[in-house]
Amino acid sequence: MTSSGSEPTTGAHGILPPAGVEVDPADVPDGHAPAKRRRLVDLTPLRASPAFARLWFGSAISGIGAQMTIVAVGLQLYDMTASTMAVALVGGIALLPMIVAGLWGGMLADAFDRRRVLLVSSTVGWASVLGLVALSTWDAALLAEGERALVWPFYVLTTLNAVASTISGATRSAVTPRILPAHLISRATALNGIAIGIMLTTGPALAGVLVASVGLPITFAIDAVLFTAGFLGILGLPKLPPLGEVAKPGLESLRDGMRFLRHAPNIRMSFAVDIIAMSLGRPFALLPAVGAVVIGGGPVTVGVLTAAAAVGTLLASLFSGPVAHVHRHGVAVARSIMVYGGCSALFGVVLLGMQLGLGGEVGASLEDVSWPALALGALALAGMGASDEISAIFRSTMLLTAAPDDMRGRTQGIFTVVVAGGPRIGDLYAGAAASLVALWCPPLVGGLLIVALIAVVTRAQRTFLAYDARTPTP
């Protein structure tokens, strides 16, 4: 920033800058002078709101267990069926229930105390994890006798868990603007990226090591233990009843939300670009097969590759200090998703090279892994994680600041459906394309399509690229 040398005057934030000088309102908290620009993540939200801090820490710890379970379920089903499509069906079967849960959960968040909605949905999620512990233990006992458990109960429990997580996610996001001032929202979103990075880095890596060392049942059981931290974070929240007129859950409430979105082109576009990215750039359902027959290394490789994406997420969040100074959120989202597509294509190229025999013979044991391919694959997935996190920070901030409070539950419900449902579509696409063509096809072709589609749709919706965070408009 530059200064003309004139004296500032008192204004709405306590100070107004000299004429011709632009200051981000986010940089003028609580009536003080503009804060010094920073490179690292801003921890102010944790200090400003103890309730947010408790929720943040609880979500991060319980999320580690949740990510362990996601990886463990994939390994469990691949071990039982040796089918990538069976792994992909975990997301496909849960898709429709998650859509319903996201829409209904958003209405619940607008109609009831959000703390209570979180407690109930988290209890259901915890019960589903305990069910996975029991089912995996039963399968291990049957395996000792030369038999296997039925596959469909795993789909039932993972779907129930996905439904509970969708409702919790929509409600938790709608809570943030109620426990933090508006100028800290983008920084809180970046902090949430840190939590997600910790979950995605630690959880999959632990899952790979634990499954290989102590087995699947104990891995699921550890998730059940870590889940308790999430409850403590929710219990630390104040009561959060609806503000203003209560919209009773039902079709009319849903119609109100849809009518709002009809006149919110920027929010709609933020949903659309994320669906494109997640539907065409989700290689994670392929990883059990990649670890077994393409790169080698088995469960440990699956854990390393999954964690690599989370490392990218974590690094992007750690160095998210500049987000408070970026105003063109639409441009930032579009560019970061195009980078995401490029990194997906790079991962596909790595798999293509291995399947053409360029990496030599591999096997499921750690001694038979192709280390150069693993390193390149991890680099590509780290790039995907970093670019996705940058996109998520700006998309979430747009939604939380542009939507009014009485619509936040419903818009967050739809947002959660997009965020959670898009990857399920992506898992189905990856499983189908890999089955019909080869493992390299989904990430390579999907990545190139992402770059092309984002360039087309964002140019067709000019208001999205012109979006300015200083005057947030839905």
Could you write a compact summary of the structure shown?
With 474 residues, the protein is an all-alpha fold.
- The CATH class is identified as Mainly Alpha
Mass-distribution shape: globular
User: Total number of β-strand segments?
Assistant: 0
Q: Sketch the topology as an H/E string, one letter per element.
A: HHHHHHHHHHHHHHHH
Helical content stands at over 70%
Tell me the domain tally. 1
User: Kindly, what is the distance between the CA atoms of the first and last residues, rounded to a whole number of angstroms?
Assistant: 28 Å
Low-pLDDT residue intervals, each spanning 5 or more residues: 1-35
Keywords:
Growth Hormone, Chain: A; about 475 residues; about 75% helix; disordered N terminus; transmembrane; mainly alpha; membrane; single chain
How would you characterize this protein structure?
The chain contains 16 helices and no strands. It has one domain: Growth Hormone, Chain: A (Up-down Bundle). Residues 1-35 have low confidence and may be disordered. It has 474 residues and is mainly alpha-helical. The longest helix has 32 residues, at 50-81. It has helices at residues 44-48, 50-81, 84-111, 114-144, 152-179, 185-213, 216-235, 251-262, 265-280, 287-294, 298-318, 329-355, 371-402, 405-436, 441-460, 462-465. Helices cover 73% and strands 0% of the residues. Helix 3 packs parallel to helix 5, helix 9 (265-280) packs parallel to helix 12 (329-355) and helix 12 (329-355) packs antiparallel against helix 15. It starts with 43 loop residues before the first helix and ends in a 9-residue tail after the last helix. It comes from Agrococcus terreus. Residues 1-20 are annotated as: Disordered.
